[in-house]
Design brief:
By secondary structure, the chain is mainly beta. It contains 1 helix and 25 strands.
Length: 376
């Protein structure tokens, strides 16, 4: 068949597959490992009504502290698993039971990534290239070929290699972050849109997976939805789920797997990124060029940042110190650098066609859970 027919057929098969398959669980599958919570926590239902807005505290970026004598965390889950007090094999325990992001605070770099050049890796999903940006100069310093339709740049679990997911060429391009260049030939993988996990975007639901048995433990239907990114609050009690169709974020109780509220943010709500101090959640609203800041403590909108002249903020991550939010402008062929102190646009850097799941590297943390740099 011709190229266009092949692409249409490929997309049709992919939509059908995603509609039936609820969750990709490969490698560590650790994003959903926290569908449980500390036994000492109790839930406070969140209001589903429109939240009140308050002034965003600008410069409160305290680094998390560690305690060598942190108590052992015992977890419970609504399901057949009898004991989750021991982490999954090979996975370090959470240092602070009140903050699952406690080992990914500002500049808390692992020895594995110390000395790695600070770079922004941008997959251009409208073509077959990855562009590299130097954050110090805010300029493009290189572009190289990956594979057709690169979607995300994903850090490996051990933090040593980045992988470009070339969806339509059925391959991964390995990148050595110490050189900022390809680390070898492409690796054959069937339809690698993302790595380690995905939400059920085309099925309009979430799935709970028992990571000890890798069996499905339940579904949560969100009628009319298109779930995008998903993150846990620091206490491991509430999932935040971006929904582009409903223009906001669902709150889902991690223990009961039931809806606990909804926060309107903006059209085409897409990416979710916790602040380095784990106080706020940044939500990209691709449909109107805004970023909503939500307080984890109150579960309410604190403020909304607007990109001057509009834009299409999609996916990205924070700088290692948490002071800059780097995010792709999917339909504007740019990358935005935004101050997390006040939401001001610091730079708008032209790149290739349809930049998508960019990776800011290195990231703080001990290991990667995949996507564009979810670390613990």
């Amino acid at each position: 068949m011709d190229k266009m027919s092949w692409l249409v057929d490929r997309q049709t098969r992919r939509l059908a597959w995603l509609g039936g398959v609820f969750l990709i669980v490969t490698g560590v599958v650790a994003v959903f490992a926290v569908i449980f919570r500390p036994a000492s926590h109790t839930d406070t239902p969140a209001s589903a009504s429109a939240p009140a807005r308050a002034t965003h505290p600008a410069a409160e970026r305290a680094s998390p502290t560690r305690s060598a004598s942190s108590p052992t965390v015992t977890w419970q889950v609504a399901g057949p698993v009898s004991d989750l007090s021991v982490p999954l094999p090979g996975m370090p325990p959470v240092t602070d039971p009140a903050n699952i992001y406690s080992d990914a605070g500002a500049d808390m770099l692992s020895p594995v990534v110390r000395g790695v050049p600070y770079r922004i890796y941008v997959p251009e999903s409208g073509g077959s290239t990855v562009t590299v940006i130097d954050p110090a100069t805010r300029r493009v310093i290189g572009t190289y070929r990956s594979g057709l339709n690169p979607q995300h740049v994903v850090p490996g679990y051990d933090l040593r290699t980045l992988y470009v997911t070339n969806d339509l060429s059925n391959s991964l391009t390995p990148i050595n972050p110490r050189t900022g260049r390809r680390a070898g030939p492409n690796i054959a993988v069937d339809d690698p849109y993302n790595m380690y996990f995905a939400t059920c975007e085309f099925a309009g639901r979430l799935v709970r997976v028992d990571l000890h048995t890798l069996g499905v433990a339940g579904y949560l239907n969100l009628p009319g939805s298109a779930p995008q990114d998903i993150k846990l609050d620091p206490a491991g009690r509430i999932f935040y789920v971006a929904d582009k169709n409903h223009a906001g974020v669902w709150l889902v109780d991690a223990a009961t797997f039931k809806v606990a509220g909804f926060i309107p943010t903006g059209p085409d709500a897409h990416g979710l990124y916790p602040s380095r101090d784990a106080r706020y959640l940044y939500v990209t609203n691709r449909g109107n060029g805004t970023i909503t800041v939500i307080s984890f403590a109150t579960r309410k909108v604190v403020t909304t940042w607007r990109i001057p002249g509009g834009g299409s903020p999609d996916m990205g991550n924070l700088s290692p110190d948490g002071k800059v939010f780097w995010v792709s402008g999917r339909y504007d062929n740019v990358v935005y650098a935004i101050s997390t102190a006040n939401g001001h646009l610091l730079a708008k850097i032209p790149v290739g066609s349809q930049p998508h799941g960019l990776c800011v590297w290195p990231q703080p943390g001990r290991y990667s859970l995949g996507h564009t740099g979810i670390t613990r």
